[in-house]
Specification:
207 residues, alpha/beta, 5-stranded mixed beta sheet, 4-stranded parallel beta sheet, globular
Amino acid sequence: GQVDTVIINGAECEPYITGDHRAMLERSEEIIGGACYLAKMFGVAKVVIGVEDNKQNGIDQLNKTIAALNAPVVVEPLHCRYPQGGEKQLCQAITGKQVPPGGLPSAIGCAVFNINTTIAIFRAITQGMPVVSKVVTVSGSGVIEPKNIECPIGTPVSCLFDACGGLKDGTYKLVAGGPMMGMAQYTTEIPVGKGTGAILVFCEKEE
């Protein structure tokens, strides 16, 4: 009863990370299907998907799917700026209201879900499938073939590098997450978790 605005976070504002963008292009039916279930769960007339305007083909694909399914979903293009993907910043960009300090989005009537969660909701309801895999962006100047990889949760990061043709000579930094908020790692034998959106590897002369 507290929520009147359901927001799906498709902003993905950190450099390098493109997993959500690829999902919009390749899995729009699952995203919109999950959004429809969220609309029913919260009893709202529509769900808003916030997408930064540098992902125009993703916006177009979502709108095409919304029209085909006649779904109660609206895509809201957002200015491309950091940290647009932050939960509180996203709420303000879409509703104009500020989440109070220390508060949650529900304090201003919002509930926020990311693209991966929306797809997971769709799969859980339609297939009974729990969250067993994750799409990870493997990128940076140290990766020979950067790409997005869907892998089982628990996969060692070293296996992702193998799937990307290995690492270049001169690679010196490994980051789990984006370049702004990610954490430096000391080994490639860390596992992919539910929250792992990206694994970045940098050479010394990163521009």
